[in-house]
Amino acid sequence: MKILDPSSLIRTVDNLNNALFWNKAWESEVGDLAEWMGSRVGKDSGYAGSYAMTESDWGQEYHLFTGERISTGAGRAHTIAQEATRLMTILERQLGQTLEANRISRDRLTKQIFANEQYYESGTAEYCCATCSVAFWRSLNADVYPEHANDFDNALGTLRENRKPAGGWQRFPFYYTLLVLREKGSEDSSDEITHHLSSCERRLKLTAGKADAYSQRRAELLQRALAA
């Protein structure tokens, strides 16, 4: 399946995330992806001048890779900006060079997030809403903001404080948060996952027999968490 969809940043981001998650080939499109995604920086409606959704994107629902729906305009704009910047950082590693569009996006997002005094005062590594924070943490994992990599320790502290007795977290989307913890792969992130394994087992049973893409991704993510 072709990854680049020049009519939609949402679908292009989802397609590339899907290829990376399932270890499918994508490298043959790296040049086209970098060029087209880079052209979305600074367009109207982009968050802080970062990657902007297309006009057709605004007319469709937006779901995170793990299926959670984002309904607010600001939430959509911010999460897609984080996701696109993260993926372009991965493309930069594949190409062995810095992409100017992604440098601009990083600089603009850095200024937007880290110039905010409240970010430092809270000590929670949260920015904007809970879901946007997880998208930001996913970027931290990918070294989008290398000088702030240690901020993920604060994110783990925030998740510990928001644990639900039966598993999962208050405010934070379960599957998207679990994905970020799995991608981090540190001892501390793995320790956080262990507190939610019973919930993972229950949720895995609920995904049995479901063939849609989001259910399949969730089932695979749960199985990876339980097998770790």
Description:
It is built from 11 helices and 2 strands, in the order H-H-E-E-H-H-H-H-H-H-H-H-H. It has one domain. It is an all-alpha fold and 228 residues long. Helix 3 crosses helix 4, helix 6 packs parallel to helix 8 and helix 8 packs antiparallel against helix 9. Strand 1 and strand 2 form a beta hairpin. The protein has a two-stranded antiparallel ribbon with strand order 1-2.
Topology, element by element:
Blueprint: H1 9-21, H2 30-38, E1 62-63, E2 69-70, H3 73-95, H4 100-114, H5 117-122, H6 130-141, H7 151-161, H8 174-184, H9 187-194, H10 197-207, H11 213-227
Antiparallel strand pairs: 1-2
Helix pairs in contact: 1-3, 2-3, 3-4, 3-6, 6-8, 8-9, 8-11, 10-11
